[in-house]
Design goal:
4 helices; 15% helix; globular
């Protein structure tokens, strides 16, 4: 048995373990729409509307396992690269998530690995002076852990629900568990060509919890909200989002984009 086959078997066993052993939480998001094979093109803009990075969303499916990868390549050479593996049966279950952020666009480099079957989070980062910081924590992950699959969760949240909560590991720079409160705030119009459409507007707020959560707003350290727009209907789709990509980061906008073909000379176009 080669390594790729062995790895696939191990991931499948881990997914089965998660589906059988993980207890259900109050806000488990049922799988209403199963994920499939996807390759989408994205654009990242700064708060003033300037295009700063090109992105790819690449997704593959093997049985009940989904591997989704979100990559942004910045014009300044920076990189955001996150790959999540999760199971989709009755509920979504994260298995692994690996996030890499590096380059001048990010305040601190980060290499974060979440391994749910091993109950382990590993963080490699650096402080303001460039000194390396490494953390490895053992965590009892909740069943609704949503790292690397927020967009998938949002496509399956019922817009009629007043609020939905899921869990997330935040790096601050040490890993800590937080809650994401997802609240629908209405619909907003947009258009595709001359066709008018409406997107559901969700606000995603990080709830730190405990004493830190009480003190954070007073100290001005409460993370900003993220806004996400999802097309509803029989085939929900991501439209755009605005929010930070890392703790303390600027507000960036992610939107869909289309391929651009090189222009041909007029004579060649006529032929």
């Amino acid at each position: 048995m080669n390594w790729n086959v062995a790895r696939s078997h191990l991931i499948a066993l881990a997914a089965l373990w998660l589906l059988v052993a993980a207890p259900l939480s109050a806000d488990d998001v049922p799988v209403h729409y199963k994920e499939g094979v996807v390759h989408g093109f994205l654009l990242l803009r700064s708060e003033d509307g300037k295009a700063i990075a090109d992105g790819d969303l690449i997704q593959t499916v093997r049985g009940e396992l989904v591997t989704t990868r979100l990559v942004f390549r910045f014009k300044d050479g920076s990189l955001h690269d996150e790959t999540a593996v999760f199971a989709q049966r009755r509920q979504f279950r994260l298995i692994t998530d690996h996030l890499v952020q590096k380059g001048p666009a990010f305040q601190h480099p980060a290499d974060v690995t979440i391994e749910v079957p091993k109950r382990r989070v590993t963080v490699h980062t650096a402080d303001d002076d460039g000194k390396e910081k490494n953390y490895t924590d053992e965590i009892q992950f909740p069943a609704d852990l949503a790292n690397g699959m927020i967009l998938t969760i949002l496509k399956n949240v019922r817009p009629t629900a007043t609020q939905t909560q899921v869990s997330m590991v935040a790096v601050t720079p040490k890993p800590r568990m937080v809650k994401l409160a997802i609240t629908p705030v209405g619909t907003e119009p947009f258009s595709v060509g001359s066709s008018g459409r409406k997107a559901i507007h969700y606000v995603v707020k990080i709830e730190i919890g405990g004493i830190a959560g009480i003190v954070a707003p007073v100290l001005g350290k409460q993370p900003p909200e993220t806004h996400v727009w999802i097309l509803g209907g029989e085939a929900p789709a991501f439209i755009k989002s605005t929010g930070p990509l890392y703790n303390g980061g600027p507000i960036w906008q992610i939107e869909l984009t289309s391929p651009v073909w090189p222009q041909k000379p007029a004579a060649e176009s006529k032929n």
